[in-house]
Amino acid sequence: MRRVAAERAKRLLIRSFLAPQSSAAVSSPFSFLSSYSAAAMSTASTPVVSLDSINPKVLKCEYAVRGEIVNHAQLLQEDLKAKPGHHPFDEILYCNIGNPQSLGQQPVTFFREVLALCDHPSILDRDETHGLFSADAIARAWDILDVIPGRATGAYSHSQGIKGLREAIAAGIASRDGYPCNADDIFLTDGASPAVHMMMQLLIRSEKDGILCPIPQYPLYSASIALHGGSLVPYYLDEASGWGLEISELKKQLEDARSKGITVRSLVVINPGNPTGQVLSEENQRQIIEFCKKESLVLLADEVYQDNIYVGDKKFNSLKKIARSMGLGDKDISLVSFQSVSKGYYGECGKRGGYMEVTGFSADVREQIYKVASVNLCSNISGQILASLVMNPPKPGDESYDSFTAERDGILLSLARRAKALEDAFNSLEGVICNKAEGAMYLFPRIHLPKKAIEAAKAANSVPDTFYARRLLDATGIVVVPGSGFGQVPGTWHIRFTILPQEEKIPAIISRFKAFHESFMEEFRN
Amino acid sequence: MRRVAAERAKRLLIRSFLAPQSSAAVSSPFSFLSSYSAAAMSTASTPVVSLDSINPKVLKCEYAVRGEIVNHAQLLQEDLKAKPGHHPFDEILYCNIGNPQSLGQQPVTFFREVLALCDHPSILDRDETHGLFSADAIARAWDILDVIPGRATGAYSHSQGIKGLREAIAAGIASRDGYPCNADDIFLTDGASPAVHMMMQLLIRSEKDGILCPIPQYPLYSASIALHGGSLVPYYLDEASGWGLEISELKKQLEDARSKGITVRSLVVINPGNPTGQVLSEENQRQIIEFCKKESLVLLADEVYQDNIYVGDKKFNSLKKIARSMGLGDKDISLVSFQSVSKGYYGECGKRGGYMEVTGFSADVREQIYKVASVNLCSNISGQILASLVMNPPKPGDESYDSFTAERDGILLSLARRAKALEDAFNSLEGVICNKAEGAMYLFPRIHLPKKAIEAAKAANSVPDTFYARRLLDATGIVVVPGSGFGQVPGTWHIRFTILPQEEKIPAIISRFKAFHESFMEEFRN
């Protein structure tokens, strides 16, 4: 049956994708470098726009997660296809990005059932549907259709997202935190990134406006601040104390920025940490909230890894929950929490769903946020539906509850084992120190590079950790992001390594990495 | 069967959406004003951010399609629910926005079948699936899965979109135009709006950079130019010649802008026109291309209504096709074409799919465009899939071909009839002149308001066409956008009226509108 369909597919593929210039339709998801060779040929010169006539903010913006190392990996992947066996590895392992399903993680069945039914509601009444879909998925699809005006899943929604879905998300937040949540505070977005851009666009007036960001940070923040022409005010996380966030450091950097004439508008906190994986303690969160209140800073809380906790002694607490537990309400602190369907155990990166919960802003400023949202009309409805599902998964008694919890726990327990195995492996290596991944999807080991390696990097006109990552890629096919892409204490070198490769691959990855690292240290031993 | 499911749905709705503050989960898609009352109460004052401390570009940005009149309509809709029979109408008719499915247009079955199967591929092998889905939808779903690396529909894709889907789109463009299209020129986006923002962000460095935009224009352009801090350089379409685009007017406005020290970077052309509905002639398109080439302007071609043509003597020609037919290639002209899944006969606004075809840019500038795209990772995969489908619909011989063409032609022929009926109705009214809607989804009638009405508007501190639209809304429940939201020749007044209400409702809408207009003219007769 499958084979028949596959053969038909091949035939139709050829027919339906046939085009004058079209080469094989099957292709890698990262073939843009090969694209450029073609592009370069076809557009040798253009009189109208050149690098020195585009917006300099665009030139300044950098995003290392898809930067130099990844571009080289894409070339290698093309090369592997063209000349199999030509490299010391037979596949490229993308450990550079938190993209679980690209590394084999399967989607949660219940979520996909509901999405499929909402995409094609006319099958909801058919008998065959009950043979294909769980009863609670069918019921949930009806729930969702009932809150979509006219059941029009193909219509633009309210620019904050469908009210009934925001009610569901607010209900999920309220039960998570134990404090009320207002559906009118929810702005649904195409993943968390556009929400971050919206807040940067609102807050940044010029390079004199500063945003306090952790170092190391997820480069979306540095990229967005650059695109909006603001100043990134760094505060360093303390690697020695497990990437601790010290209030004294926040104060020092805030005063330093102010002494330079920077108006600091906001503090970005990433919890659980990316790339650092630490989970903030409640006491630390209270200090952060007090600091923002005292210094009149908007607290931007990146909480997209809220479902990714791997250690028994830590749990996720939203900053809003902690603020409310301190008796602080809307009048006391301006707080924006970002959540995404791309992370957690769901890992639905391709669906581009997410939201921001906006609290502590005046009605007139909220109207400005709404206005900017309305210019883009609305976020995609499937992403809106999925956001309502991840905040309201199956409950005890629902038909899917047992299979859902098995899928969820299977993913999270495996991620915890992978994190531990990789952490232990890194710590077993000469000159490598790796903090525990308490949460999120990454390890950020520090690598004490030999003086000779640093000199070799300089000679190769490369940053030392980029030099290391490039050598790692060429030797093993493993793609990581150099620490310099996230920021680090000057003179220290790191790499970000996702814990996402499938568990059965971890031992081979560890031994490949180990062998590379040992020979690298041997080659550059002082 | 349906009833059973619906009753179960109600129960689950109450359980799964229950929240401390949650009111009724079923709600209008435009309830944001009622939100704000709540918001205003909960955030009476906030010390951190105020209107005078946010980015002034955000304050300056306006988007009339969801502006003052729509906000008032949302209030009325709440009021209708609370006090039925309290108004001279029993429903709000949203004729302000091109949102077909919100007014009852049904999605195209084949497209939804494929989307559902790609959302839940594990049913592709099941026997029941063949009873529920057409054979070519199943085959197309396999085609698509085969071009997605690892069949991971939940993974981030290449930041330009999945290569195999771009190949399919390029094939569709090539067969539409009869000229080759390179998949590497396609950037898939969440609808056309983010693509427009990306180009504005690339081109605008300061208020000294200008973008030539038609007046009247779709306010996304004025909003995006404001958000990016550039200058909108207006050129007026000639209403007397059916909203003709005169090259002499382009020249005049370009020279005028340059004399003021503005560097004009780009020309925006909307074809078919929004809000004007005109379809450009090939001769006119050749003149436009020559003008951009001569003046070194990037040609931004808004071609999202390419499938919405209602008159036999006009057909859609892409500006790229015309440029290629003139022998002009990548080296001769920088041209960006925008397309969306929200318009056409598909009208899938909620899916947020679209693309831009970027030609005539150097490789290094394209890399900058790619970099900005990569910061947001990728557009939503369902939207990417849908974009590949609308550019490659079922073909003769496919099982769905006949039903697909019946659905498509049914929608387009009905839209043509609605456009003609509304045009005739407007032209039958005192003081109203309405050009034909050759394409797109709107009529833009000119209304010669009596002097007394203009004085009454001024007295009410309102713009005359906004005053008219507000009176229309209060009397009939019909929501339109005042011409002042799109721009118009000073002293002329218009409204934008979508042709999208279902055909059986058109006669009632016409008589309600007619009655209102006659009494309005009577009331304010000079």
UniProtKB/TrEMBL annotation, chains A, B:
Cofactor annotation: pyridoxal 5'-phosphate
Ribosomal protein keyword on record: no
Domain Aminotransferase class I/classII large: 151-509
EC number: 2.6.1.2
Catalyzed reactions per annotation: L-alanine + 2-oxoglutarate = pyruvate + L-glutamate
CDD domains hit by this protein: AAT_like
A biological-process GO annotation: L-alanine catabolic process
Biological pathway: Photosynthesis; C4 acid pathway; Amino-acid degradation; L-alanine degradation via transaminase pathway; pyruvate from L-alanine: step 1/1
Membrane-spanning parts: none
Alphabetized Gene3D superfamilies for the sequence: 1.10.287.1970, Aspartate Aminotransferase, domain 1, Type I PLP-dependent aspartate aminotransferase-like (Major domain)
A GO molecular function held by the record: L-alanine:2-oxoglutarate aminotransferase activity
Keywords: Aminotransferase, Pyridoxal phosphate, Transferase
The protein's enzyme class: transferase
Family affiliation: Belongs to the class-I pyridoxal-phosphate-dependent aminotransferase family. Alanine aminotransferase subfamily.
Subunit description: Homodimer.
Function: Transfer of C3 units between the cytosol of mesophyll and bundle sheath cells to maintain a nitrogen-carbon balance in the C4-dicarboxylic pathway.
Designated name of the protein: Alanine aminotransferase 2
